[in-house]
Design a protein that fits this description.
23 strands, Metallo-beta-lactamase, Chain A, Rossmann fold, 8-stranded mixed sheet, globular
Length: about 525
């Protein structure tokens, strides 16, 4: 019974943890890295084709975004997640594939114009996203699910995103049972739409995030609506646009909730009918998913509106743009407006086009409403960059750069401490992950020194035996180095097929002799064909 740390260890993105129970190989999350990566991630201990199950905490791409790559490399197991996460992933994983394919196409067009650049292949294709989506097993909150002999799980609402969950895993091996809890991303309290995070009371081991383990949110509940209305008023009076880089799933819907209040209460004088554009096909689809899952996931305040027949994230003047032509037209309209567009860290998507059209205009405002990872364009802007590059062109930053203070989907340090302190007995070990390097270290020290927790912040590659309560390997940090040249797309497919075949052979022990003989003959027949 083993736990291996793979991703988001002393880093914020790319969450991934490996569990081994008996002959079963499992992952908790398989996320994409975003922004600057400081340390190398250890490889998976087994091939992708040997992974039996994935348990997903939530749909954000830093937790789910590499699931199509897992499938492309031979994974054919099941992916367990909440009902709402399943709905969101069916949108987001396809979007990830679309972005991979579009960016590769753009780079290859550029490569053709340069003798020094090589053609590239996307990490995965749309068929890989479709393939892994078909492997999803939707689960209800608060129900114990028997995954296989020796493994049970339960999802608990953690209040970070629609469908987000902490995951309890009961594991039995050779008559010994252990329970481990993965916090996922712990939500902030008193947020619009979503419920507060629920607590878990018992665990032998806990793996918990520490994104904001070094900071405190304001003790006074921010008046987001008032602050937002003030920013809109100042910008519209100047004749400018308010451009909001916003995560398509979660933050966009929260902003629509606030904007509806601004509209209903007519807080922007002289511009009461201002238009709001949601320029992200994924955000439009995600908003529909929020509405479909409102009965299970919305908090009391939002449900009061629902009971009155009011949609809390819709209002007059809301315009949803789908096509690229509709998107382009937004910036040729002189009416002061709000533009909500993804991605939230300005690394991809239509937001980059809106920044190109609005960053250089002093009458406009770029309003950030979410965490910006180190190395992203969004982080550069909030840190005061005077010039940025977009589509190969240098753009002067003359617009007002604002941050909607206090808005966060993550619990602060006190919220994290409250969550871990809710366990009736202190776990045997609390592993601190999903935080910047110094934050993981300092938060682990805080839990040890001030709260008596057996806390430890592992680096990628660390292996821990859950039966003996001992480390089998304590990894040292490995600074990021230049990636080796990847295999071509077709050759990578061939390698993945080979890994899948080996995994299938490994599971064939115990079949009838005649079936194994037939299987061997089929493999030899294929080999004979290609060797001749």
């Amino acid at each position: 019974m083993k736990l291996v740390f793979i991703g988001a260890d002393h880093e914020v993105t790319g969450s991934c943890h490996y569990l081994e129970v008996g002959d079963k190989h499992m992952l908790v999350d398989y996320g994409m890295e975003q922004g600057v990566n400081v340390f190398e991630n250890a490889p998976l201990p087994v091939s992708e084709a040997q992974i039996d199950y994935v348990f997903l905490t939530h749909a954000h791409v830093d937790h789910s975004g590499l699931l199509p790559l897992l499938y492309a490399r031979g994974f054919r197991g099941q992916v367990f997640m909440t009902d709402a996460s399943a709905d969101l992933c069916s949108i987001m994983l396809r979007d990830c594939a679309h972005i991979q394919m579009m960016e590769t196409e753009w780079k290859n067009r550029k490569a053709k114009r340069s003798a020094n650049m090589e053609m590239q292949e996307p990490l995965f294709h749309m068929e890989d996203a479709d393939g892994v989506i078909k492997r999803i097993v939707p689960c209800h909150y608060n129900r114990i699910i028997e995954v296989c002999e020796g493994v049970k799980i339960r999802f608990t609402d953690i209040g970070h995103l629609l469908g987000s969950a902490s995951i309890e895993i009961w594991m039995t091996e050779n008559g010994n049972q252990k329970k481990i809890v993965f916090s996922g991303d712990i939500g902030n309290k008193n947020q619009p739409l979503l419920k507060d995070p629920a607590f878990t009371e018992e665990a032998d081991y806990v793996v918990m995030e520490s994104t904001y383990g070094d900071r405190l949110h304001s003790t006074e509940k921010p008046d987001y609506v008032k602050e937002l209305a003030g920013i809109l008023q100042e910008t519209f009076d100047r004749g400018g646009n308010v451009v909001i880089p916003s995560f398509a799933v979660g933050r966009t819907q929260e902003m629509l909730y606030f904007l509806r209040k601004v509209k209903v209460e007519r807080l922007v004088k002289g511009h009461e009918d201002f238009p709001v554009y949601v320029d992200s096909p994924m955000a439009v689809e995600a908003t529909d998913v929020f509405n479909e899952n409102r009965m299970e996931c919305f908090d009391e305040e939002a449900m009061e509106l629902v009971k009155e027949g009011i949609n809390p994230i819709s209002f007059a003047g809301l315009k949803l743009t789908i096509t690229s032509e509709e998107s382009k037209e937004i910036n040729f309209n002189d009416t002061p407006k709000v533009i909500l567009s993804a991605s939230g860290m300005c690394e991809a998507g239509r937001i980059r086009h809106h920044l190109k059209h609005n960053l250089w205009r002093p009458e406009c405002t770029i309003l950030f409403v979410g965490y910006q990872s180190v190395g992203t364009l969004g982080r550069s802007l909030v840190e005061g960059a005077e010039e940025v590059k977009l589509f190969g062109e240098s753009i002067q930053v003359r617009a007002q750069i604002k941050i909607l203070a206090g808005i966060s989907g993550h619990a602060d340090k006190n919220g994290l401490i409250e969550w871990i302190s809710a366990f009736k007995e202190k776990p045997k070990k609390v592993f601190i992950v999903h935080g910047e390097d110094r934050v993981c270290t300092s938060f682990a020290e805080c839990l040890k020194m001030e709260y008596g927790q057996r806390a430890y912040a592992p680096y990628s590659g660390t292996e821990f035996n859950l039966l003996t309560n001992r480390f089998e390997y304590e990894a040292e940090p490995v600074p990021i180095k230049k990636k080796a040249k990847a295999a071509s797309g077709v050759y990578a497919r061939l390698l993945a097929a080979g890994q899948r075949l080996m995994a299938l052979i490994g599971r064939s022990d115990g079949l009838a002799n005649k079936d194994m003989a037939k299987f061997a003959d089929q493999i030899n027949s294929i080999c004979d064909k290609w060797e001749s």
